Amino acid sequence: MFKGENIICLAAAAWQGMWARAQQFMTIFARSGNRILYVDPPLTLISPLKNPALWSVPKDLRQCGGENIDLYNPPVILPFGNMYRPINRINQRIIAGGLKKLCRELAFKPTICWTYLPNTVDLRLPDGVTLVYDCADEHTAFPGLINKETVSQMEKELFARAGVSLASARVLWERKKELAPAIELAPNGADVEHFSRAMQPGLPPPPELKALPRPVIGYVGAVSAWFDQEMVAAAAHAYPEWSFVLVGPVDTDVSLLSSLPNVCLPGRKPYSALPAYLKCFDIAVIPFKINELTTGVNPVKLYEYLAAGLPVVSSDLPEVRAFRPHVAIAGNAAEFVSKLEKELAADSAGKRAERREIAGRHSWEARAKSVVAAVQRNRKRKK
After folding, report:
1. What stretches of 142-240 adopt beta strand conformation (E)?
2. According to the model, what pLDDT value does residue 66 have?
3. Domains of the chain, residue spans
4. Given this model, what pLDDT does residue 156 score?
5. Does the fold of domain 192-362 match that of domain 6-189+363-382?
6. What pTM, to 2 d.p., does this model score?
7. Buried (b) or exposed (e) across 243-265, using 16+ Cβ within 10 A?
8. How much is the CA Rg of the chain, to the nearest whole Å?
């Protein structure tokens, strides 16, 4: 693990959002003696119109409570930067100006820029900074205000500019290796110690789940356009005596699910509280629609579920297939219902311990060591 680096992380998700790859890597790097400047994705002038809660997002610099990590919310930028390249260039100049001023105030001389966003290709960096592009999503497939060709071109140029290119899923690695022949596969993982707390008998359950009828079929993650509501609704209709708990932010119409009496949507919960929720689950699910976006996903929740010892039923995602027979895969709603029945009936203490052991091979610490090695190899080649 390297030490003494000053790392700017240009993240795709806010630090206080759903915890995943960027927050995990940066936390581990900080613990190893590196300074981190974590940059939340900037808001545009129209962001609060779509989500009024964004009016209260903290501005400027703040501490995350962890040693060696500062969080920065950059200035508000123009909308449509992922549609029109000239707008993106203006936006990146705004962000660069804010970062330059902040780095001067903090006496922070960046040595690594770790980005998750194709549009940061237009961000001007100081000389000598190692640029790492950590590709964790198929950005051209996201819904919303993007132009696929614009995003694709920016990502192509970012791969060419980056000293180190990483992919979180094998499908992404296959898709991108023509653009970046030296791209390295670095899958996601889990904070195994954190999520294995779900197996501890003394961990108290969240109050809102205490009285739910069992079994509890649980999900942790965003309920977004790629979430297969029809699949979950089919299971909820088939087993009205079961409870379905979907923990996470909701950013799409969920009237199909919220109308069902045995479906609970408690919203996003703090990362620290998630083991208690998983403890209440009898089985965990990954019900994603299969499309260009989701086939490139390596779901962090898979590793977290396994670390909690839970049986898992998932849609047929490429990254999940390698975990059969420890994870059941459903190709449609009928299979989803039948796999839930089968996995619930077959679960045992022995299988839960086995899943925990499997998760132990996929820790974030191990992943962090592999990506640090990739950075160090790149620097040796340049000497």
Report:
1. 164-167, 184-185, 216-220
2. 65
3. 6-189+363-382, 192-362
4. 98
5. yes
6. 0.94
7. bbbbbbebeeebeebeeeebbbe
8. 21
- The pLDDT score that the predictor gives to residue 1 is 86
pLDDT of residue 363: 97
At 161 the pLDDT is: 96
Count other Cβ atoms within 10 Å, centred on residue 96. 17
Q: What are the C-alpha distances in Å from 305 to residues 98, 100, 359? A: 39, 40, 9
Dist. CA 255–CA 296, nearest whole Å = 28
Residue 379: predicted pLDDT: 82
CA 200 to chain centre: 25
**Hey, what amino acid is at 224?**
S
Instruction: In whole angstroms, give the CA distance from residue 10 to residue 217.
Output: 35
Cβ atoms of 213 and 243 within 8 Å: the answer is yes
Predicted local confidence at residue 105, as pLDDT: 93
Q: What is each CA distance from 207 to 93, 178, 212, 240, 381, in whole angstroms? A: 47, 51, 10, 22, 55
Tokens of 275: 């083991």
Task: For domain 6-189+363-382, give the CATH number.
Answer: 3.40.50.2000
Q: Distance of CA 315 to CAs 18, 129, 141, 252, Å?
A: 21, 40, 18, 19
Distance CA 374, CA 377 (A): 5
Tokens at 365, concatenated:
């610490």
* Residue 329 neighbours by CB under 8 Å, 6+ apart: 313, 314, 315, 316, 320, 321, 339
CB atoms within 10 A of CB 185: 15
Q: Which of 239, 310, 298, 238 is nearest to 274 (CA)?
A: 310
Concatenating the DSSP letter of every residue in 137-156 gives S-GGG--SS--HHHHHHHHH
- Tell which CATH architecture fits domain 192-362: 3-Layer(aba) Sandwich (3.40)
Longest Cα–Cα distance of the chain, Å, equals 65
Torsion of CA 233, 239, 241, 242, to 10 degrees: -60
Distance CA 269, CA 274 (A): 7
pLDDT < 70 positions in the chain: 48-66, 383
